[in-house]
Amino acid sequence: MSRSKPVLNRVVLTFMSAGLCQGVAVAAPAGCSALSAMPAAMEIGQGVQQDIHSPVGITRLAVGDPKIADVHVNGDDNSAFLLTGVGPGTTSLMIWTACSASPRQSMVFVRGAASTAMTDPLLPPSEDPLLPSQVQTDIRFVEVSRTKLKEASTSIFGRGSNNFLFGSPGTVPGVNVTPGSVSGTLPGIPLNNNTFNIVWGGGGSKVLGMLNAMESSGFAYTLARPSLVALSGQSASFLAGGEFPVPVPNGEGNGISIEYKEYGVRLTLTPTVVGRNRISLKVAPEVSELDFTAGVTIGGTTVPALNVRRTDTSVSLADGESFVISGLINTSNIAAVDKFPGLGDIPILGALFRSSQINREERELLMIVTPHLVQPMAVNAPLPSLPGEGLRNYDPSFLKMYFLENGSFDRRSGLSQ
């Protein structure tokens, strides 16, 4: 009997432990009310260990990714556990106690360059710790382009009786001129559709001239605001644009196949929540558009080029902070003067023998990133009305459309922000 009693005690203890793990109803310990002080998020450095105390006994521990963190129960009464940062990243931690059959869930953030563990005992617990780890990233592409063009030129064509001919560039006809036939040559002064033209002479006059002048300025503003939501530690991508076909010769050279290239507004990001209000963000935004002026012709088909603005970087921001992650200021000045040697240098009168052009272009590009910690809307929360919702069944009568419609339609925008 003395040998069978220890065996019986071990069997009883085994069944009691199994009952706790399976959620058998037992009396709740007195420290269950203090369980809310356990942090819902824990931050620790790679290769660092931290002893976390619990107000009640722990029956079981589990981590989502053992390559990021490791846990072990310690203490005589199982009231503490040892947390070890294995690798950088984010994982979940589930803690079973005798207070409830359902585990308590927390998030563990492991920083690669950290040297100490950081836990905030005052951090209020979340009903679902995964919700604050969802990050919405707003990217703003702002491109401003200013152009300035000034152009002035004079074209003169003159002919005399003794086989004398004078003409500005582009005014002499493309014919073979031989002695004795110059007097019958007609002027070929070109009209420039891109400038204002003033022509004088002609008729009985042997001199025909034209003044070309133009001064223009332009302004262009481009704004793109892609927005994307991703889970902490996970990558997400977004593309708003299209695809254009590109003919590609086959390897044998006897045929052409079609490949499609993407263009538009693209956003690829990987957010990582590294603290209660800190977000580490790896972001790669891109804006591209078709450029037919720089295209090439393949097999009789013109393939456009792409104007691309992209950046790829990593930043660390607090919730709601904005940062300029990329910028470009480009100024181009082009000046060209065509003149008759010597005569074009004469003050005032030299303008008749000179053509001048000044082209100035300024371009500024900014890419601004703003991350937000977000949560989904409640189940029964009313959704906001979408832009144009009131026009879905819009069908006015002819009299209303003709006499009363003033075009004041729903102009709301930015709902995705």
Average of pLDDT: 74
Alpha-carbon distance between the two ends:
76 Å
Molecular shape: elongated
Strand/helix succession: HEEEEEEEEEEEEEEEEEEEEH
Low-confidence parts, pLDDT < 50 over ≥5 residues?
1-28, 113-131, 174-186
**Beta-strand fraction estimate:** over 45%
Class by helix and strand content?
A: mainly beta
Can you put this structure into words, describing what you see?
It is a single chain. By secondary structure, the protein is mainly β. Among the domains are: 41-111, Sandwich (Immunoglobulin-like), CATH 2.60.40.1080; 135-144 and 220-373, no CATH class. The protein has helices at residues 4-21, 398-404; strands spanning 41-45, 49-53, 58-63, 69-74, 80-85, 89-97, 100-111, 118-119, 134-159, 165-167, 196-201, 207-224, 227-231, 236-249, 256-275, 278-298, 301-310, 313-318, 323-339, 354-374. Strands 9, 10, 11, 12, 13, 19 and 20 form a seven-stranded antiparallel beta sheet that branches. Strands 3-6-7-1-8 form a five-stranded mixed beta sheet. A hairpin with a 5-residue loop joins strand 9 and strand 10.
At a glance:
The chain is mainly beta and 417 residues long. It contains 2 helices and 20 strands. Among the domains are: 41-111, Sandwich (Immunoglobulin-like); 135-144 and 220-373, no CATH class.
Features:
417 residues; mainly beta; seven-stranded antiparallel β-sheet; five-stranded mixed β-sheet; 6% helix; disordered N terminus
